[in-house]
Amino acid sequence: MSEVSYKELSLNGLWKNNPAIVQLLGLCPLLAVTGTVINAIGMALATMLVLIISNSCVSLIRGIVSDAIRLPAFVMIIAAAVTCIELLMQAYTYELFQILGIFLPLITTNCVILGRADAYASKNSLLPAMYDGFIMGLGFAVILIILGGMRELIGTGALFNNMDLLFGEAAASWKVVVFSDYKQFLLAILPPGAFIFTGLIIAVKNLIDSQIKQRQNALKEKPAAGSKRVRVTGNIS
Amino acid sequence: MALFKVTSPHATGPLNTARVMQLVLLATIPGVLALNWHFGWGVLVNIVFASGVALAAEALALTLRKRPLGFYLGDYSALVTAVLLAVAMPAYSPWWLIAVGVGFAILIAKHLYGGMGYNPFNPAMVGYVVLLISFPVEMTTWAAPRQAFSGEMPGLADAISVLFAGREAIAAFAVDGITMATPLDILKQNNSLLIEDLWQQSPVFGQWGGLGWEWANLGFLAGGLFLLSQRIFTWHAPISMLASLTLISALFYDGGSSASGGSPLFHLLSGATMFGAFFIVTDPVTSAVSVMGKIIYGALIGVLLYLIRVWGNYPDAIAFAVLLMNFAAPLVDYYTQPRTYGHEPAHKSGDE
Q1: Considering the entire predicted model, what is its pTM?
Q2: Could you give the C-alpha distances from A119 to A131, A219, B25, in angstroms and in order?
Q3: Which of A154, A186, A187 would you mutate first to test chain B, the one with the most B CBs within 10 A?
Q4: In 3-state terms, what secondary structure has residue A177?
Q5: How far apart are CA B183 and CA B315, in angstroms?
Q6: Distance between CA B106 and CA B110 in Å, rounded?
Q7: pLDDT digits (tens, 9 = 90+) for B250-296
Q8: Structural domain spans, chain B
Q9: Strand residues in B104-236 grouped as ranges (E)
C-alpha cells in the first residue's frame, strides 16, 4: 500500500469529495433533519461516530472477509454501530433522540458510510481508515450544520434554539434571536427548504471552485507574443 | 441599387414577447377592475407594489447574471408575473408578504432555472404556493366583498397604510373585521346545510358563484376571450380545462345536498377558475405544446382542480393543479408528438 497522505484525505473529505455536496450521498438525513442547528449537530455527531467505528472495524477485518460476502458483512457492522449510538442517545439525550426519530436508525442505510467502508476502509490499514471516517464525517457534519443554521435562521428568525438538548442546562441560554418579531417562514423548515438551501450551498462551492481555477489559469505563464511553436510530432529514433 | 444580404426569416410576425406581454397585461384589466370594485383598493395596491418589487428583483438577477438589462426589463415578463401573483393574493396583504412572494417567483422560480423561457414551473404560481405553505394565516384571510360588509370600505389611503403598517392599522380590519372566508372555503367546511340554505344564510354567495368573485371571473373570461381573439394562445388548453371542470363537477353534483361539492356553474365562477384558465394555464413556457398535449394538459388541470377543491386540504387549487401539470407537461408532450408529414409516427420508448 502506498504512502497515506493525511493532507490529501482531509482535502478530499472536507472539500474536493465532500460527501454531502459533491458526492451527494446521505441526502435523506441531510434533507430531513436539518431544520434546526441542534438537530443537525445531533445527526452530524451520530453519523460521524458511526463512520469512525464502521471504518475501523471494516479495516480490521478486511483480510478475513471474502469479497463475495463483504457488503452484507459491512452492513452488519454498520447496523451494530448505529444501534450502539442509538442506545447511547436514548440514554443521554432522550429528547434529541425523540426529535431525530426514525432518522437515527436510518443512518444504517446512509450511503456515505457503506461507500467509505467499501471504497476506502476495506483497502487500507486501521489508522488511515479511522482518519478517513473522521474527516468524511466532519465534511458531512459541516454541511449539515451550515444547512441547519440557514434553515433555522430563515425559518424562525433565531439561531441555536434548544441547545440544552445536547450540551446541558447551561446551553439553554445560547439562543440568539436575530430578527425579533419575525413571522415563521415555514418553507425553510419544511423539506423544500432543505432542497433549495442545499442547492445554494452547492452553487457557492462551485463558484469558489471556478474562481480558484480562474486564478490558477491566470498564474500560468503565458507564451511571449511573437515566439514560435516547436513541432513535437514524429519520433526521434 | 444596394442589395443587402439578409438571412431568413424574412417575414417576421407582428408579435414579439413584449407585445404579447403587454396584451396579457391589458387583458387582466376587466378582471382586476371587478376585483377592485368588490374588494377595495387593496387589490390595486397589491399589484402596484408587486410590480415595483418584480422590476427590482428582475434587475438584480439580470445584473448578477450579467445579462442586458434593458432588453429583458423591456419584455414585460416580470411585470406579468408580478400582476398574476398579486391578483392571486388576498387584497390588503402586508408589504413583506408580497415582497417574499414576488422575490421568490422572480429570483428562484425564474432566474435560477435560466430566466425567461427556461422556467419549468409557472413563476407566479410558485410564488403563490411558497406563500401559501409558509404563511397560511396571511394567505387565507380574504377581505369581504363590498355588498357583504356593513362598515365603510377602506379607501386608497387606507389600503396603502395597510400595505406598510399591517391590517391592524385601519378601522375596517381592527374594528369591523372586514375579513371573511371565501365562498369555496365556506362550501368546503359546510356539512350540515343544504346548498340552498347555505346560500341564504351566508352573505358571501352571489347570483351564481361567490359574491364579487363571479364578476371577477366574468372579467377574466372577457380578458381571456380578448387574448384568444388576438391569437395570443389557442383555445385548446383553457377550453379543455373549463370543460373538464364542468364535466367532473356535474358528474359529482347531487342537486345540492350538504355533502355536495357545488354546482358546475359555482365552480366555473368561483375562486380563480377563469383567471387560471386564461392567464395561468396558457403560459407558453410551462404548458404542453402540441395540440393534443394542450387538450390533455388543460383537462387534467380541470380534474385536479376539482379534486383538490372538494377532497383536498385547500379550498382553491389553481396553483397546485398547475404546478403538478407543469411537472407532467414534458411527459404529455412526449406522448403527443404530432406525426411529421411524410414520416412514420414518432417512436415511443415502449415500442419494440
Answers
A1: 0.84
A2: 14, 35, 58
A3: A187
A4: strand
A5: 9
A6: 5
A7: 888 877 777 777 788 888 888 889 999 999 999 888 999 889 999 99
A8: 16-180, 192-210+227-330
A9: 142-143, 179-180
Top-confidence residue, B239 or A176: B239
- A175 vs A120, higher pLDDT: A120
Ranges of each domain in chain A: 7-213
How far apart are alpha carbons A75 and A73 in whole angstroms? 5
Burial of B285 (0-12, 13-18, 19+ CB in 10 A): middle
Residue B100 and residue A196: Cβ atoms within 8 Å? no
CB B305 within 8 A of CB B245: yes
For cell 382586476, the residue is B32
pLDDT band of A158, cuts 50, 70, 90: confident
Structure confidence by residue, pLDDT tens digits, B147-159: 776 667 777 777 8
Q: Does any CB of chain B come closer than 8 Å to the CB of residue A181? A: no
ipTM of predicted assembly, 2 dp: 0.77
Measure B195 CA to nearest chain A CA, in Å: 35
Q: Which of B108, B112, B133 sits opposite A186 (nearest CB)?
A: B133
Does residue A1 have a pLDDT over 50?
no
State whether residue A186 sits within 8 Å of chain B by CB.
Answer: yes
Q: Does B133 touch chain A (CB under 8 A)?
A: yes
Alpha carbon distance B297, B325 (integer Å): 7
Q: Which residue of B has its CA nearest to A187?
A: B134
Distance of alpha carbon B254 from alpha carbon A92, whole angstroms: 59
Residue in B187, B177, B190 with CA at minimum distance from that of residue B270:
B187
Which of B108, B133, B135 has its CB closest to that of A196? B108
What's the confidence (pLDDT) of residue B127?
93
Chain mean pLDDT for chain B? 85
Separation of alpha carbons B325 and B134, rounded Å? 22
